[in-house]
């Protein structure tokens, strides 16, 4: 769940544009995204608001609302807020105070709205001018309407416990707490029972919950990655590799003394990425999908939708690897079983807000991890394109001490063979990157230690083998490895900053 509370970029925007102008700019951006169907679905999935809890439904000034939680803004912000708030989980927008001079501004904001809009009018003239265009009118002395200026989730959720109470946040709340405030209040106001454990589910595979299948895919990817690493560190080539190349490992070494090491470096990095994907899928299954979070299923689905189709890279490379194909055939039906049904109702426990400095440091860590994931995705896309076209980058050829033409003269099947490994690694890297980006953006909650350990395990599995294998074969060109070093630094700093927040001790579970 992205929470843009005190990200450096937002702080810079506030310094350059001013707080009020930067606030309006952020609302306009959210409004621009949220007003489009695809953008609204993306934001809603990220914040988990497609199905608001029924217990929080109610009304304000006689107007029914799906959730008794909203925002109160002046007329100058009404247009942006009306378009930006629905995907974020707000149930109502109040515009206040409104005079007759503001009538045109409010009418423009009300046009095409998808959220109840109420107005606190300053005079009868304003109310008469707006009555045909808005859903209702509030008054300053309504005891059921609670305006909050404090970003405290505890305060807002406690106010919602009062029957019929409607909590309206001031704009400064979102400035201080970010748009994720609505979701955090909703969770705190409607905690649910713990997720079912392994003993609560029968052994009939037809009745297995979706998270079991997601877990099996994660474990399968981990096992496949470890198996690929064992093969690479052992025989390097399997029988089908030798049959395709019509060469043995010794013959490859005799043709070029660096060639076998180059193949090992490609395959070890690919194996490490597979283990990283396995760690991400395992964490999503146990920590997210098992607890019914819609966003966890979306992360899993989007990552797999990128990773599994890479098996068809063989259409461009011409080399079909049986082990890769068999792994895909085995795991893909499990992947489908994991995403074919939506998860059950989300389950969570309320989390304490914690110290403000801790939360702000964690958000810098969040930004670093999202940035790392974005860099990995770009890198994976570039590697895929290179693998499907030129195959080698200049530093590869410098390490091999050969040109592409020289390698083709040794064996015309050698370049397509390398292309398969290279392109496959790029596809796997993109799949891992999507999971890292979205898990970091959507799963950021205090006390969710599984998010921290999932990202940490994926980082170790992905980065460590890449560094070790390059050092072992003496392929240490700094330009070639600079993205890896940069990724390690960003990930390490991000996780260190986020650990106190993500790994904060969760409150004790209530006794049944």
Q: Can you walk through the features of this model?
A:
The chain has 512 residues and is an alpha/beta fold. It has two domains: 8-189, Aldolase class I (TIM Barrel); 207-345 and 357-502, no CATH class. 62% of the residues lie in helices and 6% in strands. The chain contains 22 helices and eight strands. The chain has helices at 8-17, 19-34, 37-47, 75-84, 103-110, 124-130, 153-160, 171-177, 181-189, 210-233, 239-245, 249-255, 259-288, 294-307, 314-317, 322-339, 356-388, 394-400, 404-410, 414-442, 449-472, 478-502, and strands spanning 58-60, 63-65, 69-73, 92-98, 117-121, 136-137, 145-148, 166-169. A six-stranded parallel β-sheet has the order 6-5-4-3-8-7. The chain has a two-stranded antiparallel sheet with strand order 1-2. Helix 7 links the parallel strand 7 and strand 8 (166-169). Helix 10 (210-233) runs antiparallel to helix 16 (322-339) and helix 13 packs antiparallel against helix 21 (449-472). The longest helix is centred in the C-terminal third of the chain and has 33 residues, at 356-388. The radius of gyration is 27 Å and the shape is elongated. It starts with 7 loop residues before the first helix and ends in a 10-residue tail after the last helix.
């Amino acid at each position: 769940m992205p929470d843009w509370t005190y990200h450096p970029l937002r702080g810079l925007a506030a310094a350059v544009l001013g707080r009020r102008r930067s606030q309006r700019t952020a609302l306009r951006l959210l409004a621009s995204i949220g007003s489009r169907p695809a953008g609204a679905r993306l934001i809603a999935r990220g914040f988990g608001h497609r199905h608001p809890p029924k217990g929080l439904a109610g009304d304000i000034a006689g107007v029914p609302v799906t959730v008794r939680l909203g925002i109160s803004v002046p007329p100058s912000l009404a247009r942006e807020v009306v378009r930006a708030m629905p995907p974020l989980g707000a149930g109502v927008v109040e515009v206040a105070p409104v005079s007759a001079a503001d009538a045109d501004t409010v009418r423009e904001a009300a046009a095409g709205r998808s959220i109840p809009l109420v107005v606190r009018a300053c005079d009868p003239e304003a109310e008469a001018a707006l009555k045909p265009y808005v859903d209702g009118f509030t008054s300053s002395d309504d005891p059921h309407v609670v305006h909050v200026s404090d970003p405290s989730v505890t305060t807002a959720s406690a106010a919602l416990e009062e029957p019929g109470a409607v909590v309206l946040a001031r704009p400064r709340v979102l400035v201080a707490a970010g748009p994720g405030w609505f979701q955090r209040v909703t969770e705190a106001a409607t905690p649910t029972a713990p997720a079912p454990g392994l003993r609560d589910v029968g052994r009939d595979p037809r009745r297995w919950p979706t998270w079991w299948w997601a877990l099996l895919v994660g474990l399968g990817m981990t096992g496949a990655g470890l198996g690929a690493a064992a093969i690479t560190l052992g025989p390097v080539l399997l029988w089908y590799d030798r049959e395709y190349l019509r060469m043995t490992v010794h013959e490859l070494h005799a043709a070029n003394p660096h060639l076998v090491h180059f193949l090992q470096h490609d395959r070890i990095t690919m194996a490490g990425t597979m283990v990283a994907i396995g760690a991400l899928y395992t964490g999503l299954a146990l920590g997210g999908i098992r607890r019914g979070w819609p966003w966890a299923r979306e992360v899993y689905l989007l990552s797999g939708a990128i990773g599994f189709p890479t098996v068809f890279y063989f259409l461009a490379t011409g080399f079909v690897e049986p082990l890769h194909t068999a792994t895909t055939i085995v795991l893909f039906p499990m992947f489908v079983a994991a995403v074919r049904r939506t998860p059950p109702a989300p389950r969570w426990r309320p989390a304490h807000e914690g110290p403000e400095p801790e939360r702000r440091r964690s958000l810098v860590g969040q930004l670093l991890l999202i940035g790392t994931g974005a860099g990995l995705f770009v890198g994976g896309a570039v590697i895929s394109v290179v693998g499907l076209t030129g195959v080698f980058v200049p530093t590869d050829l410098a390490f091999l001490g050969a040109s592409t033409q020289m390698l083709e003269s040794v064996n015309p099947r050698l370049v397509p063979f390398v292309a398969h490994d290279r392109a496959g690694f790029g596809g796997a890297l993109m799949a891992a990157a999507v999971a890292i980006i979205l898990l970091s953006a959507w799963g950021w909650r205090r006390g969710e230690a599984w998010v921290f350990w999932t990202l940490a395990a994926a980082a170790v599995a992905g980065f460590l083998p890449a560094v070790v294998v390059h050092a072992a074969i003496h392929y240490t060109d700094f330009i070639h490895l600079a993205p890896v070093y940069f990724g390690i630094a960003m990930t390490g700093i991000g996780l260190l900053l986020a650990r106190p927040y993500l790994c904060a001790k969760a409150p004790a579970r209530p006794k049944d």
